[in-house]
Specification:
Elements lengths: L6 H6 L22 E18 L5 E13 L9 E11 L6 E10 L5 E9 L2 E9 L6 E16 L2 E14 L2
Antiparallel strand pairs: 1-2, 1-8, 2-3, 3-4, 4-5, 5-6, 6-7, 7-8
Length: 171
């Protein structure tokens, strides 16, 4: 899932967390199917803070920004920007970590989808737990994979990821 890389980026390769084959994310509410796939790729940029704790671990908090696009026809997570906040702990070398957080996805119309996620060095899961506008009543579950690509500046980390699962819209 994650390439061998420094500690800070591996934690940042969280659920942050999409080749547009369909533009469901920006479609009017009447055009969004009541259920469908989550199959999206995303790029992420993140900043985090870490401090040493007992047992050779570090406590971490961070903020990430994502751009999501559909990787499969009909994916609900398409053409969205996102902001995520997270916290957890990691080994200083990044070989082990665990984080939990929340994201807010937003489309060009200002409609939002809310996500909670958990990720470890072995992978992650996410849950869509509400939305506004055309996304009102959305729920869903998905897996998250991500990969760290590099650090363009001190304390800034970047990479890509994938979300795969399904959603339902309550009417």
């Amino acid at each position: 899932m994650h390439a061998h890389h420094p500690a800070k980026p591996s934690v940042l390769a969280i659920a942050f967390g999409a080749m547009a084959l369909a533009s469901v994310g920006n479609a009017p509410a009447a055009e969004i199917p009541p259920e469908g796939p989550i199959e999206s790729t995303f790029t992420w940029t993140s900043r985090q803070e870490a401090m040493p704790t007992a047992g050779g671990m570090e406590a971490v908090t961070g903020e990430a920004w994502l751009v999501l696009t559909a990787a499969g026809a009909g994916s609900i997570l398409d053409r969205l920007g996102a902001r995520c906040l997270y916290a957890g702990e990691q080994k200083p070398d990044g070989s082990e970590y665990g984080i939990r957080g929340r994201c807010r996805f937003v489309d060009a119309d200002g409609d939002q989808i809310f996500e909670t996620f958990e990720e470890t060095h072995a992978g992650g899961t996410g849950r869509l737990d509400g939305g506004t506008g055309k996304f009102s009543g959305i729920t869903g579950e998905h897996t998250i994979t991500s990969e760290y690509f590099g650090s363009p500046a001190e304390g800034v980390y970047q990479g890509i990821g994938r979300k795969k699962g399904s959603y339902k819209l309550a009417k």
